[in-house]
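Q: Given only this backbone (146 positions), what sequence would you predict?
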């Protein structure tokens, strides 16, 4: 399930299909092909625990250097700032950003639940969005520690 989320496969039906068609899914499933119903029920039953585990997996991947995230630019303009908000931030604002990012992660996980019935909007890669927000959460945790 975590590999599916990390690669943008959120639907239980697509995860099931991927165990037949995709070698990484086939390997991680141990050659088994679970039905989509148990996958969806498992996700519904353990969603809070899955969110925490996903955060820990992303933080660990970032810590060991296997998680790389790129820059997102809407108009291509890059602005250098010595006193940027990411370097100079109040503790109160840091807590607000933390709660906002956690809310956004919850929203993205809610989108995965709807992936069963509908297709995702064009150009939206939820795995990238979740990874970006988890990187921000990790940076905020470091700032809190300082």
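A: Predicted residues:
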């Amino acid at each position: 399930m975590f590999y599916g989320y990390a690669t943008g496969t959120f639907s239980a039906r697509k995860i099931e299909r991927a165990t037949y068609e995709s070698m990484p899914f086939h390997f991680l499933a141990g050659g088994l092909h679970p039905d989509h119903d148990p996958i969806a029920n498992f996700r519904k039953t353990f969603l809070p625990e899955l969110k925490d585990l996903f955060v820990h997996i992303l933080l660990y991947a970032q810590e060991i250097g296997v998680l790389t995230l790129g820059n997102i630019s809407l108009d291509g303009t890059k602005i250098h700032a010595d006193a940027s908000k990411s370097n100079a931030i109040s503790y109160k604002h840091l807590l607000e950003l933390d709660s906002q990012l956690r809310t956004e992660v919850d929203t993205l996980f809610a989108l995965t639940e709807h992936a069963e019935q509908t297709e995702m909007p064009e150009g939206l890669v939820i795995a990238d969005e979740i990874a970006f927000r988890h990187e921000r959460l990790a940076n905020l945790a470091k700032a809190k520690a300082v």
